[in-house]
């Protein structure tokens, strides 16, 4: 269940490889020193600890420079009602609707990322609302609510008409 405590700061879940965009994030934090981002390696946290950390975060930062077909941290963030600040690359750009369930920035642009981080910290209520939309998107896109009765009951009903 989602924590009712106020969310604050961001979280970056990845390794520190060049493709992860960690360098861009570090440069953005130099431009915006007010940003509080926790760097987390996936190997450091198990499923429950990761979920608890996401529930405390106001947003997830995903500055990846390469296209990953379905970024796992993005899906986990959406599942926990956390909006995502991501680079405008690949499937992240397709899943994130700026201002609705997250924010996008130009890939590799530390300045653009710093602006998004500052905006996110300045408007926590809007980020909370984006988190609610992210959770709704997760449920609509990734949770199957089909049952045997729904699938085959509907087919039988349409066959009788």
Q: How do the helices and strands follow one another from N- to C-terminus? A: EHEHEHEHEHHH
Low-pLDDT runs? none
Structural class assignment: alpha/beta
Major β-sheet strand ordering = 2-1-3-4-5
Rg on CA atoms, Å: 18 Å
Kindly state the number of beta strands.
Answer: 5
Characterize the quaternary organization of these chains.
Answer: single chain
Distance between the termini: 43 Å
Main pleated sheet: 5 strands, parallel
What value does the average pLDDT take? 86
- C-alpha geometry: globular
Helix count equals 7
Fraction of residues in β-strands: 5-15%
- The portion of residues assigned to helices is 40-55%
Write a concise synopsis of the structure shown.
The chain is α/β, with parallel strands linked by helices and 161 residues long.
Structure explained in plain terms:
The chain has 161 residues and is an alpha/beta fold. It is built from 7 helices and 5 strands. The protein has helices spanning 22-31, 47-56, 72-79, 90-95, 110-122, 124-142, 148-160, and strands at 10-13, 37-40, 59-62, 84-87, 102-105. A 5-stranded parallel sheet has the order 2-1-3-4-5, with helices on both faces. It is globular. It starts with 9 loop residues before the first strand and ends with a helix.
């Amino acid at each position: 269940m989602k924590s009712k405590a106020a969310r604050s700061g961001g979280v970056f879940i990845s390794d520190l490889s060049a493709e992860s965009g960690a360098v861009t994030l570090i440069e953005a934090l130099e431009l915006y020193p007010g940003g509080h981002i926790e760097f987390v390696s996936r190997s450091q946290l198990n499923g429950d600890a990761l979920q608890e950390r996401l529930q405390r975060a106001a947003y997830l930062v995903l500055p990846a420079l390469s296209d990953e077909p379905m970024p796992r941290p993005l899906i986990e963030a959406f599942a926990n009602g956390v909006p995502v600040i991501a680079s405008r690359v690949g499937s992240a750009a397709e899943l994130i609707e700026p201002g609705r369930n997250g924010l996008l920035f130009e890939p590799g642009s530390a300045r653009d990322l710093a602006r998004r981080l500052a905006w996110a910290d300045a408007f926590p209520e809007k980020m909370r609302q984006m988190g609610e939309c992210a959770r709704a998107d997760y449920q609509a896109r990734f949770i199957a609510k089909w049952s045997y009765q729904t699938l085959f009951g509907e087919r039988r009903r349409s066959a009788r008409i």
